[in-house]
């Protein structure tokens, strides 16, 4: 299959929505075709496959497709098209001195289709448009942030004209955000980074006040803390949001995504009405929890490293190994936390702590 | 804390000759052929393979003799001084011999020790304390192993190992009391033109294999003066063979999920890096050698992952080390001949506190000025008394 054929079939699949009948055969066929395309067109990926003794002749199943750890995005350009064709680059967060991973895109059609299908299904399943209040910068203010791109796209496609980004290039004013939220009479989609929510909650606590956001409001938080606020566990954060903003727990969801992937994963709480910490996997994605040494699935209920196979990642690599520990639950997964340099490493410095990697 | 009061009472036994002898005999117990202590630690440690623990301890303790202990004590406590009655020692990491020296040094100075073992290695400190008590019960009574963080507030001095963040937090807590902090560090190997690559590779392989490359003295990179061109490639090939051979003799220990993922990522990063050539254990994660193209600083290796970085000359080696200055600990070297004084200059400028022959990186002497700090003196206080007569 050519790239154009893969994209056409995939766009049609995404258009069927989240409730399309899962098809292992369809996924397998597309994944193997895409792997072959990415192996043929991506020099860096081909080099990685060669180092691990893999090529399309030996890959018979999507599970055999070599996954690229996210750290490798810092080392090499993994796009399968020439740099001149790049229309958008998303970069991982990081300090200015550390190398940052990048996902380059030469076409946003698939990226947008996947993003919109899942965002609508899991955040706005009950209405066409809603007023957004975004605790993150817009794509205009943060052009290399995939998160900002997602929020901007969601606002454009699902937001009312009253939607607002409450964080700008110079940061944000929690008091102004509180005033904006307190003044609204419409149901909101209050979305943003977890650390921004923590700042908002802390400011509300300092002022000794809470909000009662209008009925129909939903909250979506994402993105971890990255040292920008105190850290709260998911349960604790959702409880605190419910208490401080007057939004029921059944209307608060966590989204899990990463710069290196085109697709995102959500808790299905707003679709089912029941709070859940299990992330749903879109039909065009597969997720495994693996033992990193063997590359095999861990036993059911055991923790492994999460690996995603995202067909919407047409322009780079479809198989991405994360730095997250997780466990599978049915076809979904639960995120258990970041893999951390273990205490047992000895006394050597962790690679992440070393500054100045050129 | 009641334990600190008891420890202060027990320090009467830490009379110089007695504590020196007790420590030397304890080290000898651990280093002896068929040592029961070493055997127990090898069996139960859980992170390293038994042969690595056996060999690592045997080699490291070979020089930790009564003579070496006496000389160290004489050097550090030359004049009468105040010795903290009780020192709290907070351990980190998983390397047994690092725990042994951390416990032994304050005792040698005459300070009782309250030690908190590392969560990764709760055994080494406990077994060392038990063997010291068997050697000399009175000296052994001056070493307690526990986990009460109040000791950080109540001990007369504190020695702490751990991440920079941990050290900084403990330093604040300790305030004006004597404090010795050891943050996490990195080391590297340097191979000059005056050594056969095969010889250098064998020594480097031992440095990488002992403690599985986890320690701050493990070679995170091996810089090789690539003159004539091709020596670095030769070193890489020889190192791969040497690590493969050592895997029989000193098998690598287990990796937990996070560590295994870290190694997979290191390998993948090397695999996609422009100009890097990768050699790996066949079908296993036990060793990896990455031959770099020469103009990069790859991520530091760990778990027997060694990056060979070719450099054109010794001065370029200095350029590689410079930006690492706050984090560099040791350079293990071979083949620099008459250029060794210049290597020492460059190393000192980069903040390195130890230069040693390749093959001995994991075997620091007991009197090593760890991270540039004297091993005992920062814990002590001197009072200069000038006579009225002048």
Molecular structure report:
The complex is a heterodimer of chains A (358) and B (390). Chain A is of the alpha/beta class. In chain A, 30% of the residues lie in helices and 18% in strands. Residues 350-358 of chain A have low confidence and may be disordered. Chain B has helices at 2-10, 16-31, 36-44, 50-61, 66-76, 96-109, 122-135, 137-140, 150-154, 164-174, 197-209, 231-249, 257-272, 314-321, 340-349, and strands spanning 86-90, 112-116, 143-145, 157-161, 179-182, 186-191, 219-225, 277-280, 288-291, 305-311, 328-334, 354-357. The longest helix of chain B has 19 residues, at 231-249. Chain B folds into two domains: 2-184 and 368-379, Aldehyde Dehydrogenase, Chain A, domain 1 (3-Layer(aba) Sandwich), CATH 3.40.605; 186-357, Aldehyde Dehydrogenase, Chain A, domain 2, CATH 3.40.309.10. Chain B contains 15 helices and twelve strands. With 390 residues, chain B is an alpha/beta fold. Chains A and B meet through helix 3, strand 1 and strand 12 of A and helix 13 of B.
């Amino acid at each position: 299959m050519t790239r154009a054929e893969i994209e056409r079939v995939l766009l049609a699949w995404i258009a069927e929505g989240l409730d399309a009948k899962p098809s292992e055969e369809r996924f397998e066929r597309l994944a193997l075709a895409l792997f072959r395309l990415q192996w043929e067109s991506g020099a860096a990926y081909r080099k990685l496959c060669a180092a691990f003794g893999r090529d399309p002749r030996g890959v018979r199943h999507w599970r055999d497709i070599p996954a690229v750890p996210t750290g490798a995005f810092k080392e090499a350009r993994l796009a399968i098209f020439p740099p001149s064709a790049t229309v958008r680059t998303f970069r991982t967060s990081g300090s200015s001195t550390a190398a940052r991973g990048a996902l380059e895109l030469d076409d946003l059609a698939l990226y947008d289709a996947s993003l919109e299908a899942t965002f609508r299904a899991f955040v706005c399943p009950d209405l066409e448009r809603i007023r957004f209040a975004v605790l993150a910068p817009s794509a205009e203010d943060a052009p290399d942030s995939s998160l900002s791109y997602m929020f901007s796209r969601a606002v454009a496609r699902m937001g009312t004209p009253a939607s607002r980004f409450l964080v700008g290039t110079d940061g944000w004013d929690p008091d102004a955000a509180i005033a904006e939220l307190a003044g609204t009479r419409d149901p909101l989609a209050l979305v943003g980074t977890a650390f921004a929510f923590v700042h908002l909650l802390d400011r509300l606590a300092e002022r000794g006040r809470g909000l009662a956001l209008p009925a129909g409001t939903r909250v979506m938080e994402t993105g971890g803390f990255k040292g920008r606020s105190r850290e709260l566990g998911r349960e604790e954060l959702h409880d605190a949001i419910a208490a401080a903003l007057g939004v029921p727990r059944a209307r608060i969801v966590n989204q899990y995504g990463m710069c290196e992937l085109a697709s995102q994963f959500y808790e299905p709480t707003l679709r089912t009405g029941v709070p859940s910490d299990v992330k749903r996997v879109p039909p065009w994605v597969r997720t495994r929890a693996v033992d990193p040494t063997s590359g095999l699935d861990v036993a059911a209920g055991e923790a492994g490293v999460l690996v995603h196979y995202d067909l919407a990642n047409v322009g780079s690599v479809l198989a991405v190994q994360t730095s997250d520990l997780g466990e599978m639950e049915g076809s979904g997964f639960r995120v258990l936390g970041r893999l951390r340099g273990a205490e047992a490493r000895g006394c050597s410095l962790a690679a992440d702590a070393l500054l100045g990697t050129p | 804390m009641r334990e600190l009061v008891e420890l202060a009472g027990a320090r009467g036994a830490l009379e110089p000759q007695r504590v020196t002898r007790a420590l030397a005999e304890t080290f000898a117990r651990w280093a002896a052929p068929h040592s029961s202590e070493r055997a127990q630690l090898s069996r139960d440690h859980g992170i390293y393979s038994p042969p690595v623990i056996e060999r690592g301890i045997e080699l490291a303790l070979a020089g930790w003799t009564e003579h070496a202990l006496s000389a160290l004590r004489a050097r550090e406590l030359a004049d009468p001084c105040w010795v903290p009655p009780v020192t709290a020692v907070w351990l980190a990491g998983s390397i047994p011999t690092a725990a042994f020296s951390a416990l032994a040094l304050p005792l040698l100075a005459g300070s009782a020790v309250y030690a908190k073992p590392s969560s990764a290695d709760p055994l080494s400190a406990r077994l060392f304390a038990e063997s010291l008590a068997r050697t000399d019960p009175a000296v052994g009574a001056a070493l307690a192993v526990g986990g009460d963080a109040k000791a950080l507030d109540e001990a007369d001095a504190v020695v702490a190992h751990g991440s920079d963040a941990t050290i900084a937090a403990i330093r604040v807590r300790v305030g004006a009391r004597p404090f010795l902090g050891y943050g996490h560090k990195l080391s590297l190997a340097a191979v000059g033109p005056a050594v056969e690559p095969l010889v250098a590779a064998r020594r480097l392989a031992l440095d990488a294999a002992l403690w599985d490359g986890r320690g701050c003295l493990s070679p995170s990179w091996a810089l090789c003066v690539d003159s004539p061109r091709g020596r670095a490639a030769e070193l890489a090939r020889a190192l791969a063979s040497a690590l493969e051979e050592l895997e029989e003799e000193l098998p690598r220990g287990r990796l937990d999920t996070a560590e295994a993922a870290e190694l997979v990522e290191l390998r993948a990063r090397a695999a996609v890096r422009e100009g890097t050539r990768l050699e790996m254990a066949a079908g296993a994660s036990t060793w990896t050698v990455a031959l770099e193209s020469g103009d990069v600083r790859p991520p530091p290796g760990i778990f027997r992952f060694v990056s060979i970085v070719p450099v054109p000359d010794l001065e370029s080696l200095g350029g590689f080390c410079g930006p690492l200055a706050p984090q560099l600990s040791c350079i293990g070297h071979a083949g620099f001949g008459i250029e060794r004084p210049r290597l020492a200059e460059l190393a000192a400028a980069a903040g390195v506190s130890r230069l040693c022959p390749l093959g001995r990186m994991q075997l620091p002497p007991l009197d090593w000025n760890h991270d540039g700090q004297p091993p005992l003196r920062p814990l002590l206080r001197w009072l200069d008394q000038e006579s009225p007569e002048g």
